[in-house]
Amino acid sequence: MIDLRSDTLTRPTKEMRLAMAGAEVGDDVWGEDPTVRELEEETAALLGKEAALYVASGHMANQLGLWVSSRSGEEVWAHEDHHLIGDEQGAAIVLSRVLPKLYSGDPFPARELLEGWLTGLGEMHRADLALLWLENTFSGRVVPLAEQRRITGFAHAHGLKAHLDGARLWNAAAHLEVEPAEVAEGFDTVSVCFSKGLGAPVGSAVAGDADTIRRARRGRKLLGGGMRQVGIIAAGALYALRHHRERMPEDHERAARLAELLNDLPGLDAVAQTNMVLVTTPEGEAGRYIEAFAAQGVRTLGGGDRVRMVVSLEITDSDIEDAAKAIAKAVAEL
Ligand SMILES: *Cc1c(COP(=O)(O)O)cnc(C)c1O
């Protein structure tokens, strides 16, 4: 079985497990875990921010980013397909009690849309502004940095904070061949995952200025996210940060190779920018294709007319060739 459902499926490597077993630890709720501190400092430095906070999940990192920059009843501007909106059980509404204002289609908001949304601001009927939300990568696609800067510039000019959901920011930086800090630039807060393409077993971080992260640390405790000798798992994240970032282009090349092979097949249209191959099937047929691929030993996810295949560090060159052959067989038999 070749499993291309997600880059969260990776298991810690032998070297990573050794780093975890040997980690120096302490009570992190008291700020005394040296491995967590090291991870937080290195993450902040890579992202060009003053401070970072290690948390259980990307979901928690996002919710804390929202929590520190909004008050109940304020507006958050986001895309309807952002993870914040569709994949966090509505936590934005439950925990921070904000009002999402959503756009659809284009991966980032056009100037006219943003300007239109300012209309009526300050009137009695209108909620106040809190935060503009972006995601990079967004569904495997990289948002150009010039667009990001236009949008964060607009946000700040109009009193909105800006958060970047950078669960796969490392992939975006690898694709753009820039430092992670360049992708994070202009955002008040940014969340990153260690447990996706980097291959760590647990954890994410939220980064920002020192005062913001101090408030996020209090928020993490409020949510029950204060952990004790958590250096054991932070060591896996630290190992991933130090050793697995530079190999990300390999995942991107394999994804591109898979897309190229799939484009030779009738009825499929595949694109890959980072580690995600997005395959368009005939309308409403994705489910049937996914079942047929699985019957040939390739696990994928999707729905409607879209199948996604994610390449990560356990997927080899021969897996890519084998997956393409199995998919070709499935397509021929459909
Ligand atoms: C996976 C993901 C998250 C959340 O990460 P978890 O660790 O699974 O909670 C947030 N945002 C995006 C865009 C993601 O892909």
Identify the notable features of this structure and list them briefly.
334 residues; alpha/beta; Aspartate Aminotransferase, domain 2; Aspartate Aminotransferase, domain 1; 2 domains; seven-stranded mixed β-sheet; four-stranded antiparallel β-sheet; 13 strands; globular; binds pyridoxal-5'-phosphate
Give a verbal description of the structure.
This protein folds into 2 domains: 7-243, Aspartate Aminotransferase, domain 2 (3-Layer(aba) Sandwich), CATH 3.40.640; 247-333, Aspartate Aminotransferase, domain 1. It is built from 14 helices and 13 strands. It has helices at 14-21, 34-47, 58-69, 83-86, 91-96, 111-118, 145-157, 169-176, 180-184, 210-222, 231-243, 248-262, 286-295, 317-333; strands at 2-3, 51-55, 75-79, 99-103, 129-135, 161-166, 189-193, 204-208, 269-272, 276-280, 298-299, 301-303, 306-310. The strands form 3 sheets. The protein has a 7-stranded mixed beta sheet, sandwiched between helices. A 4-stranded antiparallel beta sheet has the order 9-10-13-12. A two-stranded parallel sheet has the order 1-11. A hairpin with a 3-residue loop joins β9 and β10 (276-280). It starts with a strand and ends with a helix. The structure holds pyridoxal-5'-phosphate. Pyridoxal-5'-phosphate (PLP) binds next to α3. The site of pyridoxal-5'-phosphate (PLP) has 11 residues, from α3.
Rg calc: 20 Å
CATH superfamily of the largest domain: Type I PLP-dependent aspartate aminotransferase-like (Major domain)
Domain count = 2
Could you report the average pLDDT, rounded to the nearest whole number? 97
Strand order of the largest sheet: 2-8-7-6-5-3-4
